[in-house]
Amino acid sequence: MFDLIVLGGGPAGYLAAERAGHAGMQVAVVEERALGGVCLNEGCIPTKTLLYSAKLYDGARNGQKYGVTANDITIDHAQVVKRKDKVVRSLVAGVKAQMKANKVTVITGRGVITRKTQEGYEVAAGNETIVGKRLLIATGSVPSVPPIPGLKEGLESGFVLTNREMLDLTEKPERLVIIGGGVIGLEFAGYFNSIGTKVTVVEMLDHIAGETDRDLTDIFQKEMASRGVVFELNAKVTAVGGKDVRFERGGETITVEADKVLLSIGRRPATRDIGLEVIQVYTERGAIVTDDQMRTNVPNVYAAGDVNGRSMLAHTAYREAEVAVSHMLGVRDAMRYEVIPAVIYTNPEIASVGETEATAAAKGLPYKLVKLPMRYSGRYQAENEGGKGIIKLLVNTQTQQILGAHVLSNHASEFIVAAASYVDLGLTLDQIKRLVFPHPTVAEIIREAVFQYEP
Ligand code: NAI
Q: By CB count within 10 A, which of 55, 113, 114, 311 is most buried?
């Protein structure tokens, strides 16, 4: 009998298990693939190792601007993938060690809820049957596969890949067509463009990167286009052939030839065939409905991570896991989705937190904008010859608090947390002005932007 059974060993699942185990609960985690989930095995971490290799390669190739010349620079994609596997193995081992350290029982196999018992919930886990007083459903998400003719066949033949297979490709494709210009599409576009693949991004909307601030994405898109990435916008994919992708724009059908196709048009919560109906967990459009303490409609059943479809980000999953465990332990805690930062780890990076101009206007929030080129930071200039990055701050004109921050710059992923803290804590500009940033740092741009604000 467990105090808690966690279905899924990704960021939400393993962190909840770790926290709950640490607090003295008897915990079991059921994972059918590998601990670490999508993030560690086929998402966040592997893509970052690839992107880092690409960044080094780009830096070496473009070193002349900085007085560095090198000859015969090459990138060995197979070697990059091999190193990626090593990093992943080491981190998965780390998660395993954490489970052990917190006395968490790890069961390999698929977990399916089989019934409610007097004591709690029964789960078929691999070859075992276990019972837990509480359940945390953290089964994550899977790629969405729309009913486009030829797509299913393409996936079966290996012509069309999702992020999972893409990361294990050891041979560089000459021509890659990416369906979907969202986060996954752009990160892969960045990597494959750097290593010399001809990349075409086919996006249904008239812009890339979803809800991300348009000033940032416009600059970013131009930068990527200048490096050779082709963006086909307003492009609705109508068919996938044996060697091409067809899309429609303004009544015209256009065909792009490809050696490989990446499908990245979003992900859907993994809620099928895990027995949710047995205990009648309420879902909406395939996502488990939760409150801000990660409770479902069923007592003692929680859901955290992508499976609740609220914010499909690993760092959201971490926090949701903690909030769920807090609730189990009777500690007051709740999610605040509006202060979760988001990052696209391209080169340069795009990082944001809080309101965009569009969302602030839609909510009728009184705001004024500060928009600065990243050149205002000395460190940025030192490290980004000709860089076109920008920062945008949205300031609430009534409260003098920061409503949102959007940064296109190297290191943006590392320092957006400063802005996120101000938004989260509701600091006013006067309070922020007294905070000292180390000099010179790229992050100082936030301080600069705050001082540039004129009421
Ligand atoms: P996404 O929702 O970010 O982007 C999907 C894109 O595909 C959208 O721009 C959409 O307009 C487009 N699209 C949809 N149907 C289409 C069609 N039939 N033809 C052409 N375009 C179409 O989804 P993505 O990139 O697959 O990522 C999945 C999830 O993983 C996201 O929720 C994302 O937040 C998460 N993720 C986060 C990362 C990060 O935080 N850095 C990195 C990678 C993924």
A: 113
Q: Which of 12, 15, 7 is nearest to 33 (CA)?
A: 7
Identify the residue whose C-alpha is closest to ligand 1 atom 14.
265
Residue ranges around ligand 1 (CB below 6 Å): 146, 179-185, 187, 202-205, 210, 236-237, 264-267, 312-313, 343-345
439 is catalytic: yes
Report pLDDT digits (tens) over 262-318: 999 999 999 999 999 999 999 999 999 999 999 999 999 999 999 999 999 999 999
Q: Which positions ≥6 away from 59 have C-beta within 8 Å?
A: none
Report yes or no on 292 lying in a domain. Answer: yes
Mean of all residue pLDDT scores within the chain? 98
Please state, in angstroms and rounded to a whole number, the distance separating the CA atoms of residues 336 and 316. Answer: 10
Looking at the fold, whether 299 and 382 belong to one and the same domain comes out as: no
Residues 19 and 135 in one domain: yes
Q: Kindly state the helix (H) or strand (E) to which residue 318 belongs, with its residue range.
A: helix 314-328
Do 257 and 313 have their domain in common?
Answer: no
| Domain count within the chain | 3
> Is residue 249 located within the same domain as residue 286?
no
Q: How far is CA 138 from the centre of its chain?
A: 16
Atom of ligand 1 nearest to the CA of 184: 25
Pairing state of beta strands 402-409 and 349-354? antiparallel
Cα gap 244→441, rounded to integer Å: 46
Reading the block at residue 349, the tokens are 């990076």
pLDDT of 142 reads 98
Q: Where are the beta strands (DSSP E) in 203-265?
A: 230-232, 236-240, 244-249, 252-257, 260-263
Q: Output the domain CATH number for residue 397.
A: 3.30.390.30
Total residues belonging to the chain: 455
Mean pLDDT of the region 403-408? 98
Which residue out of 179, 183, 231, 247 has the highest number of ligand 1 atoms within 8 Å of its CB and is therefore the one to mutate? 183
Q: By residue range, what is the domain housing residue 161? A: 151-265
Residues 6+ apart with CB under 8 A from 410: 347, 348, 349, 380, 383, 384, 387, 389, 442
Cα–Cα distance measured from residue 450 to residue 87, given in angstroms and rounded to the nearest whole number: 39
Are 280 and 189 found together in one domain? no
Residue 60 maps to a domain: yes
Secondary element (H or E) of residue 419:
helix 412-425
Bridge-based pairing of strands 367-373 and 160-161 is unpaired
- The span from the CA of 322 to the CA of 221, in Å, is 36
Distance (Å) of CA 439 to CA 371, 379, 417, 432: 21, 8, 17, 16
Q: Token pair of 246, please?
A: 């067809």
